[in-house]
Design a protein that fits this description.
Blueprint: H1 76-116, H2 121-136, H3 149-159, E1 163-164, E2 167-168, H4 173-193, H5 200-222, H6 232-261, H7 265-297, H8 301-334, H9 336-339, H10 347-361, H11 366-377, H12 400-417, H13 421-428, H14 439-456, H15 461-471, H16 479-492
Antiparallel strand pairs: 1-2
Helix pairs in contact: 1-4, 1-5, 1-6, 2-3, 2-4, 3-4, 3-5, 3-7, 4-5, 5-6, 6-7, 7-8, 10-11, 10-14, 10-16, 11-13, 11-14, 12-13, 14-15
Length: about 500
Amino acid sequence: MSGHEPEGGPVTGEPPAGSGAPLSTESMPAGSGAPLSTESMPAGSGAPLSTESMPAGSGAPRSTESGAGADGSRGGGGARRVGRGAGRRRSRSVLTSVHGSAALLALGSLAFVLWTGLEERGTALAFGVLITVGELNRRSGPHVREAAPLGAAGALSYALLGENAGVPTHHGAAQVVTVVLAASLVGSVPHVGRGQGPTADQLARRVLTVGFAAVCFQPLYNQGTFTQWDGPAYALLLLALLSLTALCDAVLAAALAHSRTRWPFGPLLRDELRALLGIGSAVVATGAVMALAVAVAGLWALPVFSVPLLLTQLAVRRYAAVRSTYRQTIASLARATEIAGYTPAGHAHRVAALSREVGRDLGMSRPELTVLEYAALMHDIGQLSLVDPVPAGATAGLPLAEQRRIALLGGAVVRQTGVDAAVAVVVERQADPCREQPQAARIVRAVNAYEEKARDAGPGGPLTALEELRLGTAGDYAPEVVEALARVLSRDCLTSPMTG
């Protein structure tokens, strides 16, 4: 029931760091002409030295990830490669386990239904049609929190259906899973034809969460365990089961996202749980109301109680459209410095995209990521007030007093645009002393410096820029931000910035 939120999506589809040669931190040999590895570059090779390979006492800060391994021997780079390989294997194992469990549950349920036959076909058909309509009304996109809320509510209500117009039902958990999966696949056909169908993760979550709710309810109900539960107690029971199902779905969604992206699990789970207060709570409430209404009024209650959720879905779509327009407005403002010739083309968008990835790696919440992204887009807007443009818009090499003046001018411009005041604060404080900056300002400052230095340093620019940032962690750049930037560059194989 929960997935990805429209509010926090990236503004641009441009690659965060341009389109040059890939920057690998594992395998590129020294002297190959490509960006050199921070792990494989020997000391004294003439290339920029990694802080991981510099000897103690050289004056360069040593990385906590370098040099000696856990046993005191050299070989930290190999240990990190082994660690990354183990992380990838764990990620694949989680995905395989979830998809395999969903496939086994679906196949087992289908085989059982084919063997025993379909109970109460009219009821199964009615709920199947409802779920199909919900899937046909699916809203696709990588940042949609709940793609098909009506389909999810119909599936959950069928899983918790005990009576139909006062007559007890006898369908089991296997039939619930089979009907829900079949209806979901049928309703997804038009979307698949347009390349916008549900993903394997979404289908697996739907099967597992509906199966969980049905297994918790149907066997006990058919055995008469809930016979004495009536009135408010029965309604509270359904709500409790649906809430537990929603929590399980949130954990499952966060685990799948963590496995695919390797972003921290905690912030992902926090965002999923926070989303339950929005469209997730509407899905849970509608599922419970449908199950209770059908038990009293029969199947005619399904279309009646589908209307409120459809209207809610329409309102959410309109809100998402407004947010999209808002983002486009900020993106247009960010291009003002490029159009005026103050900064290279695409600089703001690259800084914003890479800043967002670094923020994710550091565990920032979705609202914090949105503020970070907007501030990164507008971080150079203060240059519009300069009489003489800075060469190539590279503010990282300016005197600190000039950097602060440009930052304050940029913050004043942002405040005049009506953008969230938190964005203006980040823009204003991006040139403050590192220890006094909020986390978002630290990220914008480091990523902007990396993009500028990498753009101007030639073929070895990404590595050279990263090493310069590491050498500046004593005062200019936050060490945790620089290391997060290094992890993002290594993990995502981001490319070196374009020359503009």
